[in-house]
Amino acid sequence: MTETSYSAEASHWHPVALVEAVADAPVAVSLLEQPLVLWRDGTGSLQAWADQCPHRGARLSLGKVCAGRLECPYHGWQFESTGRCVQVPALPEFVPPATHAARTFAVQEQYGLIWVRLAQASDAVFQPSLPVFPAEADAQLRKVNCGPYDVAASGPRIVENFLDMAHFGFVHEGWLGSRDAAAIADYAVEATPTGLRATGCKAMQPQSNLHSTTAAEVAYTYEVTGPYSAMLTKVPDANSVALAGYRESIGLFICPVGHEQSRVWFRLAVADFASPEQTLRDFQHTIFTQDQPVLESQCPKRLPLNLRAEVHVATDKASSAYRRFLSQQSITFGVIP
């Protein structure tokens, strides 16, 4: 992606790393095929720059942070938090002009993740906010991040899988579904400003969560909160769960690394303050690693937005609505128009 080739997806905020992953040393990540370097300046503020020194193109992520400045590994040029070079060791008396600067991007922290937007404010197609995760404000739900997972699939294929209940009895047999109870009842889908909302979703599940004691019908609500993000809430039958008042929300946040390569995080919000964090992560890990080989097997890897490119049935109404949303938003990354 060049400095001027901003697209609709470049105008969105995308997760690129866990907050705790960036401490004293620079960290290399990639977003929309743009290599980035993340680092913290002398005040602890996050910086997200193109991972390329403007001098001779070396990866700045191979450098180090010195007294609150990012030092290039090749010639030791040092850059302050604005991106401007302030020191060239080979020319101690030289005062670098403003043109001697790294390319910087907007960055912020939320949900325990670092978010970056590639389009500059003046170039952005529009100015969306971060994907909403309403459960974040609920003090009665414990928040735990899971991931990252590096997946050889496009971001939109992963979102579509997240919205799909008909695979439960086959991909997650014995956990979220069973093949002898694979029928999916009708549900409602409505368009929203950020994507869609699916309500009235129900599934019979042998073990919908860590505390399930018996198979039960579980009520789901899904919401697409951006082109590469979604969330669900699920409430099992109270008589099927050992933990009183159990409920949960799960946020899906995807970094579209490449057209067919994604980095994925889940943010759990669960009414469970007793289980170890790793136990909560292990359950989610079990579920997603059942999905991953199927996702990576799909052909084409990019999601076709033309609804005639693949066949559909009534249970696919959420994914069909998602494809229409991506088309309306002029999303081109990870899809086939």
Reconstruct the topology from this structure.
Elements: E1 14-18, E2 27-31, E3 34-40, E4 46-50, E5 64-66, E6 69-71, E7 78-79, E8 85-87, E9 104-110, E10 113-117, E11 142-151, H1 155-163, H2 168-171, E12 188-192, E13 195-205, E14 216-226, E15 229-236, E16 248-258, E17 261-270, H3 277-297, E18 303-304, H4 317-328, E19 335-336
Parallel strand pairs: 18-19
Antiparallel strand pairs: 1-10, 2-3, 3-4, 4-9, 5-6, 6-7, 7-8, 9-10, 11-17, 12-13, 13-14, 14-15, 15-16, 16-17
Arithmetic mean of pLDDT = 94
Rg on CA atoms, Å: 22 Å
Please report the total strand number as a whole number: 19
What is the end-to-end distance? 19 Å
Order of helices and strands: EEEEEEEEEEEHHEEEEEEHEHE
Instruction: Report the sheet-strand fraction.
Output: 25-35%
Largest sheet: 7 strands, antiparallel
Query: What general outline do the C-alpha atoms trace?
Result: elongated
Question: Which ranges are low-confidence, i.e. pLDDT below 50, for 5 or more consecutive residues?
Answer: 1-5
User: What is the count of DSSP helices, taking H or I runs of 4+ residues?
Assistant: 4
Strand order of the largest sheet: 11-17-16-15-14-13-12
What's the oligomerization state?
Answer: single chain
Structural class: alpha+beta
